[in-house]
Design brief:
mainly beta; seven-stranded antiparallel sheet; four-stranded antiparallel sheet
Length: 159
């Protein structure tokens, strides 16, 4: 079953991606690449630029994470570690650098995945009352383990 056609190499030539049981087949210019997912349930979200290089990357999900197929030649999976999650609003540039980021929402948490660098920058640790004032604060941890507190009542962020 055809899941989409995209310019995956940045050369103006469209590649066709097909869902074939346990495989994703990418057909471009007379050649075919197969990506096997075995017995894992998987799907394709679409394609967008996530690395700032010419050509779009195919973005999809398995039961354990998000996969990104770059240049129609390599696959990387970003493990999510949660059973219930969603890709929020597709992909968006959140850091002002070339390539869109993947924003993952899961069980009370948010992660921002930078596919180009492989970093997972932020995740929500918890939501709790930190200042003994009305309203809970949102505790966010960055990739280095630094904790930030978002106070919606005051509109301030502290670390």
């Amino acid at each position: 079953m055809l899941v989409g056609t995209w310019d995956l190499r940045g050369n103006g030539q469209l590649a066709a991606a097909y869902h074939d049981g346990a495989n994703l087949q990418v057909v471009e210019g007379g050649s075919t690449r197969n990506y096997s997912f075995g017995n894992v349930v998987w799907s394709v979200f679409g394609a967008t630029d996530t690395d700032g290089q010419p050509g779009a990357e195919i973005i999809g999900r398995t039961s354990t994470g998000i996969y990104v197929i770059s240049n129609a030649s390599s696959r990387k999976e970003h493990s999510i570690g949660a059973s219930a999650w969603a890709l929020h609003g597709g992909t968006t540039d959140t850091d002002g650098k070339p390539g869109n980021e993947l924003i993952v929402v899961m069980q009370g948490k948010v992660r921002v995945i930078h596919h180009a660098s492989g970093d997972v920058n932020y995740s929500i640790d918890s939501v709790a009352d930190m200042d003994n004032q009305p309203g809970a604060e949102i505790l966010v941890r960055d990739a280095n383990g630094k904790l930030f507190v978002f106070n919606d009542r005051t509109g301030k962020v502290s670390s």
